[in-house]
C-alpha cells in the first residue's frame, strides 16, 4: 500500500523504520517541530532525519489543518495513513482521505489509557500489563476499532523506562501486522468496549510531587514510574527540593505522621506513608537513593545522617 506517516519522537521513528523495512511504500511523512517540553526531549529520535535519509518527502507541522498540507496529501494519493505519537487533533477530512482510512498506533491496551503518558499512568495505577494497540481512527480520540493489540506484563521491579523498551519493540509487529490485515481486504475489526475507556492527561510537575499520605506501595510505583530519563519524583527536606531516585516498600510496618523520617532499614531510610485502605497495613517507603538540589546523587543512608524531621510535599 501507499502509506503517509504522521509521527513524532522515538515512537514515530520506530513506526517509520518498520514501514521502510516493509513491503509498503512510504510516500510522505508529516512530523512535529522539535520541542523544549521536558517530556518531548525524552525519546526524541528524529522522524524527519530518518525520512530524509531514505529520500521520503517531509512536512513539519504543529497541526494538520492548512490547505497546503491537505493538497500535498491528495497529491501523495495514499491508500492509508499510519499515525503514532501525533500530538494534535487530526481532522476528519485528513483521517478520512486515504482509501483505507487512518491507522493509529497507541502505546496502551485500549480502551484503557487513551491520551497521554499511558505507560507512566498505568504503572502508577498498578496495572498488571501494558502494551500497544493499532486501531482505525475515527472522530473520538483513541476510540476506533482495534485491528491488532499486543501486551507485555509489568514486572515487580520494572521501571517506566523498562516498559518503554518492552512496548517500543511491539510497534513494528503490531503496525505491520495490522497493515497486512488491512491490505488483505479485511474491514471488520474489534469494537472497543467504551464502558472500559479511560483518558489521561500529559504529565506535569505537579504529577511527580510526592504526597506522603499515599500508601507506600503507591509511592514505590510512582518512583519507578519516574525513572531516568524521566524527571524524578520529589519532596522537600528542610525547605530544599530532594529527588527520590529509587525506593522500595519497607519490610516492617511503621505508623505515625506521613512524611516522618523514621528508621534505617537495610539499604534504605524509611519514611512514614499513609495506610493502605485495601489492606489496612501501614508500611513505609524505604528510600535508597536521592538527588539533591545541586545535582548530587547519593545513598539515602549517607544523605540522612540522623533520623527525625519530615519530608514534605512543599517547601
UniProtKB/TrEMBL annotation:
Keyword terms: Transferase
Pfam families: Formyl_trans_C, Formyl_trans_N
All residue ranges annotated as the Formyl transferase N-terminal domain in the record: 1-169
Gene3D superfamilies reported in the protein's UniProt record: 3.40.50.12230
Signal peptide positions (record): none
GO function term, MF aspect, one: methionyl-tRNA formyltransferase activity
Domain Formyl transferase C-terminal residues, every copy: 205-306
GO cellular component: a single term: cytosol
PANTHER family, alphabetized: METHIONYL-TRNA FORMYLTRANSFERASE, METHIONYL-TRNA FORMYLTRANSFERASE, MITOCHONDRIAL
Protein name as annotated: Methionyl-tRNA formyltransferase
Organism: Streptomyces alfalfae
Lineage of source species: Bacteria, Bacillati, Actinomycetota, Actinomycetes, Kitasatosporales
Amino acid at each position: 500500500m501507499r502509506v503517509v506517516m504522521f509521527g513524532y519522537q522515538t515512537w514515530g521513528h520506530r513506526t517509520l523504520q518498520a514501514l521502510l523495512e516493509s513491503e509498503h511504500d512510504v510516500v510522505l511523512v508529516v512530523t512535529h517541530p522539535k520541542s523544549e517540553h521536558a517530556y518531548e526531549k525524552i525519546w526524541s529520535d528524529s522522524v524527519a532525519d530518518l525520512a530524509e535519509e531514505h529520500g521520503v518527502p517531509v512536512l513539519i507541522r504543529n497541526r494538520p489543518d492548512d490547505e497546503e498540507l491537505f493538497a500535498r496529501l491528495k497529491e501523495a494519493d495514499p491508500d492509508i495513513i499510519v499515525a503514532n505519537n501525533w500530538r494534535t487533533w487530526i481532522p476528519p477530512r485528513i483521517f478520512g482521505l486515504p482509501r483505507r482510512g487512518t491507522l493509529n498506533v497507541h502505546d496502551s491496551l485500549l480502551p484503557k489509557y487513551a491520551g497521554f503518558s499511558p505507560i507512566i499512568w498505568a504503572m502508577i495505577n498498578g496495572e498488571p500489563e501494558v502494551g500497544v494497540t493499532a486501531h482505525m481512527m475515527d472522530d473520538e480520540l483513541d476510540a476506533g476499532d482495534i485491528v491488532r493489540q499486543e501486551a507485555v506484563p509489568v514486572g515487580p521491579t520494572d521501571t517506566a523506562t523498562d516498559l518503554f523498551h518492552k512496548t517500543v519493540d511491539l510497534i513494528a509487529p503490531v503496525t505491520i501486522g495490522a497493515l497486512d490485515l488491512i491490505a488483505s481486504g479485511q474491514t471488520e475489526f474489534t469494537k472497543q468496549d467504551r464502558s472500559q475507556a479511560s483518558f489521561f492527561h500529559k504529565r506535569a510537575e505537579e504529577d511527580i510531587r510526592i504526597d506522603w499520605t499515599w500508601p507506600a506501595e503507591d509511592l514505590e510505583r510512582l518512583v519507578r514510574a519516574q525513572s531516568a530519563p524521566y524527571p524524578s519524583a520529589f519532596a522537600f527536606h528542610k525547605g530544599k527540593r530532594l529527588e527520590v531516585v529509587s525506593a522500595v516498600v519497607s519490610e516492617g510496618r511503621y505508623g505515625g505522621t506521613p512524611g516522618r523520617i523514621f528508621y534505617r532499614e537495610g539499604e534504605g531510610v524509611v519514611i512514614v506513608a499513609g495506610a493502605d485502605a485495601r489492606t489496612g497495613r501501614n508500611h513505609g517507603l524505604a528510600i535508597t537513593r536521592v538527588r539533591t538540589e545541586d545535582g548530587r546523587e547519593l545513598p539515602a543512608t549517607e544523605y540522612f545522617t540522623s533520623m527525625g524531621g519530615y519530608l514534605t510535599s512543599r517547601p
